[in-house]
Specification:
The structure is a homodimer of 163-residue chains. Chain A has 163 residues and is an alpha+beta fold. Chain A is 60% helix and 18% strand.
Amino acid sequence: MTDEQRIEEAVEEIDELAAVTRERDEYLDALQRLKAEFDNYRKRVARDQQELAARAHERLVRELVPVLDDLERALVAASEHEEAKLEEGVRLVHRSLADLLVREGLAEVETVGKFDPHTQEALLSQPSDEEEGTVIEVLQKGYRLGDRVLRPARVVISAGSDG
Amino acid sequence: MTDEQRIEEAVEEIDELAAVTRERDEYLDALQRLKAEFDNYRKRVARDQQELAARAHERLVRELVPVLDDLERALVAASEHEEAKLEEGVRLVHRSLADLLVREGLAEVETVGKFDPHTQEALLSQPSDEEEGTVIEVLQKGYRLGDRVLRPARVVISAGSDG
């Protein structure tokens, strides 16, 4: 390679250096802007989620206030020995709270048929004419919220017949 | 500048070109990875949104399950005409629910003293020995949750004495 050629080549490299430097600066700039955008997005999401959680919570607390009112009316009936009114009041409170919880997605765990370890807890096993492993008594209701088991149903299962 | 110097300088430029090219490639790589991460994050946020809304009040619903249990026990007592047990049950339910709501931040609106239009609603104004504008009777309790008034207290205020 002659010096002439070397110089020519070097000039090309210098042009390329300018181009690559410009690209590098552009990428760095884009990277920094994207980082800032991502950070802002993350912060906004965190803020939104907190607010969303607070709103969901507030709605539920708000709906519980009338239940508390009904309970207080029932207590007044109790203090005045108005048994029928008290009983009716308790029924009303129960219906309100149960309906509210169903609207919130609460559902009773099913307990018909074979024992299900995912949603039930067997506290006892007793001889019975029912097929072994069948739920024969529910000691405490279980509840699900959507896919999640909030509390398993506590049940007695059949140990099968002795014969 | 001699050819010697030019060549020396050109070699330096070539070294710099290599370095800048490496930087450019690194920034481009980082930019692409951050873009992908951001996209994934956005998708995950969208997916989480629904679940979060569902879970926001899960804790509260979970705490309400024992209140429902107590109510059901009270109903059993009612159906068996065990009045004392029914009354005690209702007291228990009331205490549980009231305590739970206090823990969740619910507070009664104060009604002592001068009428407060921000937290109270005057349903009636009656002549009374109390100073004009004073709350003289609470018809329905009001509730606050943090800074927000969930329900104003419904009150009767004094119209002052006729004399």
